[in-house]
Design brief:
The protein is of the alpha/beta class. The protein is built from eleven helices and eight strands. The strands form two sheets. A five-stranded parallel sheet has the order 1-2-3-4-5, with no helix packed on it. Strands 6-7-8 form a three-stranded parallel sheet.
């Protein structure tokens, strides 16, 4: 996601043509989750425009279509997979990872299917897998089976940390909506590869979001010191301040690792007199 109604005129310029929105977002953050690709494979020309709006070092983590991961459950989906790979080809090195978000019912007995699917994928991409079946987090044998399936293709296990979100009852409409939709995932902070990917869900209260990510600041600092190149995605239920929070997280990591490169300078926008643009 690189657009949000509440960002218009505050974080991103307004008005802004559709083919300019990603370029402005890329002035705030240097990575994005490609969640829309889960619902429909984009036109190749559309993807080419994404490449034109971003630098080669920008990171896209693109979710495979639901027809592949959910409807077909990684079987008999060659045509859909080929169409998707063809569509995203214009991104070139910007495709940081192709992301398989598997349904909650995809459990340990399905791991052989995942292993076969991963072995057949093109080797010119990196892959990341997000599982939501509780056994992978509570049963060491199930976790080991999954890790053994990921290892031959150097695929990463993507944690979705919702522990801060579910720590106390919701207090806003957006939180109440997310309360019924988001998975209650146990915490996992291990990395399998040199490019770990983390998805973190905070609260609509920025203070609580920041409190909840403190463990991740230390984890990410440790990964960077080990020579890894992590990607951190920060969400809140309403996502109104997500780019601001992402930059704040980066600032906290950089405070402990001053050698870490800064994020890009945002493209200037005219703030509303009633709502000045602030970082915090």
């Amino acid at each position: 996601m690189w657009t949000h109604r509440s960002w218009s005129g505050r974080i991103l310029a307004h008005p802004l043509a559709p083919h300019e929105r990603l370029r402005h977002y890329a002035g705030w953050c240097d990575a994005v989750e490609g969640n829309t690709t889960f619902y429909a494979t984009p036109a190749r020309d559309t993807v080419a425009s994404w490449a034109e709006q971003t630098d080669p070092g920008f990171r896209f983590v693109l979710k495979l279509p639901r027809t592949v991961t959910h409807d077909r459950r990684l079987t008999a989906a060659d045509e859909e997979l080929r169409a998707f790979l063809h569509a995203v080809e214009p991104l070139g090195p910007r495709t940081h990872a192709l992301w398989l978000q598997l349904p909650g019912g995809f459990g340990p007995t399905d791991v052989p299917t995942l292993a076969r699917f991963l072995r057949r994928l093109p080797t010119d991409h990196r892959y990341a897998v997000e599982v939501r079946h509780p056994a992978f987090f509570t049963d060491p044998q199930a976790a080991r089976l999954l890790e053994e399936a990921l290892a031959p293709v150097a695929a990463e296990w993507v944690p979705f940390d919702t522990t801060a979100f579910f720590a106390s009852p919701p207090t806003s409409d957006a939180e109440r909506d997310a309360w019924t939709k988001k998975p209650r995932m146990p915490l996992r902070t291990d990395a399998l590869t040199d490019r770990p990917i983390v998805r973190y869900l905070g609260r609509d209260d920025d203070t609580r979001t920041v409190e909840g990510w403190q463990r991740w600041v230390d984890v990410v600092v440790g990964w960077l010191r080990e020579g890894r190149s992590p990607t951190m995605f920060v969400h809140t239920p309403d996502n109104a301040d997500a780019p601001l929070l992402a930059r704040r997280f980066h600032d906290e990591v950089r405070a402990k690792l001053p050698g870490l490169a800064p994020l890009p300078d945002p493209i200037p926008t005219e703030p509303s007199p009633a709502e000045p643009l602030t970082l915090f």
